[in-house]
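BUG: 3D viewer hangs when loading the predicted structure for this chain

Environment: internal workstation, default settings.
Expected: structure renders.
Actual: progress bar stalls at 90%.

Input used:
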Amino acid sequence: MIAINLDHVTVTYIAQPIFRELSWEIHSDRCVGLIGPNGCGKSTLLRLIAGDLTSDTGFVVRQNGLKFGYLPQEPRLTPEQTVLQEALGASSELIQIERKLNEVESQLGEPTVYTNERKLAQVLEQQARLLEEYTRLGGLSYEGRVRAILQNVGFTTEADLNLLIATLSGGQKKLLGLAKLLITQPDILLLDEPDNHLDLAGKALLEKLINEHQGATIIVSHDRYLLDLVVDEIVEMEDGRLIHYPGDYSEYVFEKRMNQLRQQQLFQAQQKEINRLEESANRLLTWGRLYDNNKFIRRGKSILKRLEKIDRIEQPKTDRRRMGLELGGWRGSNKVLEITELDKIFPANANNEETIVLAGLNLLIWHGQRVGLVGPNGAGKSVLFRLILEQDTPSGGKIAKGPSVEIGYYAQEHETLDYKRSLLDTVRQAEKLSESQAVSFLGKFLFDYEKARGPVSALSGGERSRLQMALLMLTKANFLLLDEPTNNLDIASAEVLEDALEDFEGTVFVISHDRYFLDRVADHIVELVDGRLVEYVGGYSDYLAAKSKRKKQLTKGSH
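Structure tokens produced before the viewer hung:
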């Protein structure tokens, strides 16, 4: 059944069209992955569907009574509220009824009401209606249902429920935002990059919640692994159009490539025929003028008229322009990094308690290895990187780097960038380049001249990520420490990074929650759990299979 119909809708921003004349039939029982390059209008389209925006042209027709649950990239939460208070406020209908019930109770205590039989009857009747509506909306079991949903998304203890929103991590805020949607039981879930900031456990929860949702879901995401697991179809936003592909992300990639090849063959065949007819028409026209033969001229003009009426096949667009990342590297030391019995303990807090983050870590990385570091948020992955970079000192143990190891570091929060500098100054500080060379270099990373002259502070998250990639390329390092490098990158840019790392001659140690990326790049996975490292051979899928096998063996052993 069609739940929403977009009919030739257009949205403009400051006289510039974001998209024009889009049409889309959205079904009530499908999970759709909405993909496309950063800035193409995906978030705007979600807001239009949710009713937060109106279109300049066309119509948005929604099935009567549809309830929408919209999760923006940054969930709208009240910092001074607790988790439970915020979640209990999810149902605006129940809040409104509770407010009216409180008003009715106050009226019942007024002498002008309880001493007047007619007024008292009216107020009691109003109370009965409100109580009936309150019961219909599940108000009697509401708090219990809210607590159960919060537990499902990871807020399992009373202490978790009493956490202030201001103290939550980005991932916790995303899960709380999702919980608030589920509390309202929407027919349509609209999720704008819900996987950002989530660790692997959080992503597993997200997948479960999407798969269990009974209605429709539209999800904007750069997580290709997630899209493979949850979607029924892919809708690609490209050049202001929507192109539909049945199946998951991997099926979309295959089908799109096949379509491009078929269209290229048809285009070439048509061009060959058009060229042949044009040559024939030109010959006839030339002969007609040369020999003053109207018959030849009429035939030549007739062929040209036929050519005008031909329905021309468009030349397929190959993948749009991508950043030109090349990571040269060089061999360097055979033994790149050796960590022995590494400890990191943070000093006592207000309760006189020390925090043990790393406890007796051991790790050996050889030249050419691609090692993925995984673990829950807060496990100490970024702390380990800071220790390797000598930005912090260990509490015990040793970190030894090979004598000819040069490190290139990609910071998750872009803290290595000076936000006051221009892009030109940033790259010229990293490498001796003339202004024209710097402009040309930044052009490889999709920055035009105006952007290049502007400050780093004016860049979006994705643009800052590309700038960090550019600086990484200038380091000519042979050992890359990458902290969540695919965060903020669109799919095309993530694929460029994967290809560059495949060709990189050096060694890679990467923190990532991007499972598709880890499957393509990593040949070893190390998991940081309870301050210790557990090593697995292979990519993410190999790690997942080995963990599952180990869990089954432990379960058998305990019986």
